[in-house]
Amino acid sequence: MFLLLPLALVCLFCLLPLILSLVPTFTKPVFGLSHYVAFFKDSFNRIIFQRSLRISLITTIICILVGLPTSYYVSLLGEKKRRLLNSLILFPLLTNAVVRGFAWISILGKNGLLNQLFLSLHLTEEPVKLLYTEGAIIVGSVYLFLPVMISTLSSVMERIGMETVEAAYSLGAPPVVAFFRIVVPLSFSGVLVAGVMVFAGTISAYTTPTLLGGSQNMMLSTLLYQQSNTLADWDAASLIAFLMMLLSLGMMKLFNVLASKIDQRGTEHV
Amino acid sequence: MYKHHLLSVITIIACAFLFIPLLLIIITSFNSADTISIPLDGFSLSWFGKVFASRSLVSSLRTSLLLALLASCIGLVVGLMCAIAITRKPGKFSSFCLDLFLSPSLIPGIVIGYVLFLFLVVRLKMKLDYALILGHVLVVLPYSVRILSSGLKECDETIEEAAMTLGCNRIQAFVKVVLPDLKPAFLSAFMLSFINSFNNIPVSMYLKGPGKNTLPYAMMNYIEYNYDPTVSALSVMLMGLTLVFMVIIDRVTGTGKGSRA
Number of folded domains in chain B? Predict the structure, then answer.
């Protein structure tokens, strides 16, 4: 009985609207993928689609490369230090995305802190264009999702336990070898799960590409908002919404299945 | 002894990358110059005063606080109902329902905002205020469901049964025995819901009416037209709020674990 109201709420106001707006992109006016074919024929759309994929992929890779060693290091610390560092890493995660975007505007902007530094050191004669580039979106997205990566991987590291690493050391493995032969393979499925979270988050983010990318560097999310709010083109907007769902939810599902497959294989070996 | 210097270097870089931007905002918000620059011209609190002088920022702050409060409270009530139903009757259907209730957190926020706008506002002609609250309830529901159901799972069901054999009816037993035990879960669910509703942009930007603004969106508008430390000062205040919330959550969950152990 308790389930009825919440179920109705989620079904009526979340699933139903989703279905009602996304299904017509396949059925109206004729059944098929004609809308999607038309969407990808347009080079403007194609560029935005590719840019979204590229930015999300690079962000994910950077987050993994930085997050994996960091979370491993954090897991080696003592209880007290670890808790402190974990909550410090969580802090940006709970801070408003506009605040975080604004921080990077004030650093990367034309009169920003980085350009002030460059000019005062006479590294450049004129301000360098850093803001409103793809690089700025990537930096902002890494900033947004690195805490997600680190905190997810930290719990993975705790599950691994350090006994295996200790064993490797006592058998004479140098630290680098132990990291790549023990920690990386054991945390691989966790990396997949966290990675796809970062990927999906980057591709769905709206604030960061708007603030740091400007209008020349649109992503799918900013295109969706433009189509729906400025142009009131519901067909195009619904199509983009479906693509975003596919890229985030679809990838998540795929990679979670992949990760659990890998975990199973691991236990079989043991 | 297992630490390698390369590992520490990467960790230090990661932490510096995470904190320096926020630190720079804090420093520049106290600058007396009217641009964001370092070194500081002089110390001044005038930008903090400027925040409260801006009518659009103050009124949007009020909207955001009220909205977050309402959405979190509704989310808690609905979330509690979900949690009770799911934990008391575990099974395939329950875990399916749990996935369903958590699903709004997986769907891109901007897609939720868009489809709700299309369905509630364009199709059903619902009043924007209600649509906005509803949208935010959907945003916060996953947090309260997840936290409350794991809190309920930890509760000892035998205590509730004991209360019932001692003469309480079902509802009394729940209110007198289970609810007090759930207090830490309630508090952290409320805090997380509040923060997430307060920080939300994609859902608000579709469902806020004309002339009404939530704080994050008003900040975005402000940044578009002004580049001065007012937003830095406001950001510092918001960070302070976040810090207070984090400390409360930490205390609550920390002591909760302590008393149980």
Answer: 2
Answer yes or no: do B118 and B191 share one domain.
Answer: yes
Per-residue model confidence (pLDDT) at position A244: 94
Contacts of A184 in chain B (CB under 8 A): none
Q: Do A103 and B22 touch (CB under 8 A)?
A: yes
Contacts of B81 in chain A (CB under 8 A): 2-3, 5-6
Q: Report all structural domains of chain A as residue ranges with CATH numbers, in order of start.
A: 36-264 (1.10.3720.10)
Interface check A36 vs B, CB under 8 A: no
Closest-CA residue of A relative to B139 is A14
Q: Tell me whether residues A3 and B97 touch, CB distance under 8 A.
A: yes
Q: What is the pLDDT of residues B208-220, one digit of tens each?
A: 888 789 999 999 9
Q: Cα separation of B144 and B125, whole Å?
A: 29
In this structure, are residues B104 and B112 in contact, taking their beta carbons and an 8 Å threshold?
yes
Compare all CA atoms of chain A with the CA of B81 and give the residue at the minimum distance: A2
Q: B208-220: string of b/e by CB count within 10 Å (b at 16+)? A: beeebbbbbbbbb
| Residue contact A241–B115, C-beta within 8 A | yes
Report whether pLDDT(A159) > 90.
no
| Owning domain of residue B228 | 55-260
ipTM of the modeled complex: 0.89
Q: What is the CATH number of the domain that holds B225?
A: 1.10.3720.10
Q: What is the DSSP letter of B31?
A: B
Instruction: Tell whether A184 is within 8 A of chain B (Cβ).
Output: no
User: What percent of chain B shows pLDDT beyond 70?
Assistant: 95
